[in-house]
Every structure is written in structure tokens, then in C-alpha cells.
Amino acid sequence: MRTNIRTIIGIAFASVLVLTVSCKGKTEEAKETSTEATMEHEGHDMGNMETADKQGKEYTSKYVCPMHCEGSGSDEEGKCPVCGMTYVLNEDFQMEGHDQH
Fold first, then answer.
1. From 25-34, 51-60, 85-94, the region with the lowest mean pLDDT
2. How high is the pLDDT of residue 23?
3. Would 45 be classed as within a structural domain?
């Protein structure tokens, strides 16, 4: 009986060790993928964002891409079709016929 308990404890310990090591690798891989996705903004003129013409739907929609990709923006939550970033609520959004005070 004592041998069986030791065997069970040994198997449980080995299982926890294997799961810990394998999950750690996946977490680091997910972090790298996430970082790469947020860092890649090819085709965006980051230096000219302040002076850009802010008349397109990428600036005037209720939900906009944080990168203001051309042609992005929606009245519903979602993801940018250009860069894949999640839309954010546009704080400057004005519903038609309503003035901001």
C-alpha cells in the first residue's frame, strides 16, 4: 500500500511539473504574438496623426480604430478590417442633429 501512495504522489508531482513547464511556454508565446500584433503598423503615418484630415469615417464613427486606419470605423463594436485592432469608443462622436456642449 505504501508503494502505491508513493507512486501516486510521484505521478501527481511529475504531472504538475510538466503542466507548469508547458503552460509557461504557451504564455510567453502568446505574449510575443500579442506584442507583435500591437507593434506592427505598416502603412500608418504615425508622425502625421495630429495633422491628419479628421473628416473620414475612421474619425467620425461611434467606434474607431485606435490607429485611424483609412476606411475603418463603425457604429458597432468590432475589429478594424485593416490592422485587426479592437475598435474603441470615439469620445468625439456626435450623433446627427446633436451638438456637444
1. 25-34
2. 60
3. no
Indicate if 30 and 58 belong to the same structural domain. Answer: no
- What does the pLDDT look like over 54-68, one tens digit per residue? 788 888 999 999 999
The verdict on residue 58 lying in a domain is yes
Residue 65 cell numbers, joined? 480604430
Q: Tell me, what's the pLDDT at 42?
A: 59
Question: How many domains are there within the chain?
Answer: 2
Q: Nearest CA to 56 among 68, 66, 41?
A: 68
Q: For cell 505574449, name the residue.
A: 31
DSSP annotation string for 17-82 = HHHHHHHHHHHHHHHHHHHHHHH--TT--GGGTTTS-TTSHHHHSSEE-TT--TT--BSS--B-TT
Nearest CA to 49 out of 67, 70, 74, 62 is that of 67
Chain-centroid distance, C-alpha 54:
24
Q: What is the DSSP letter of 87?
A: P
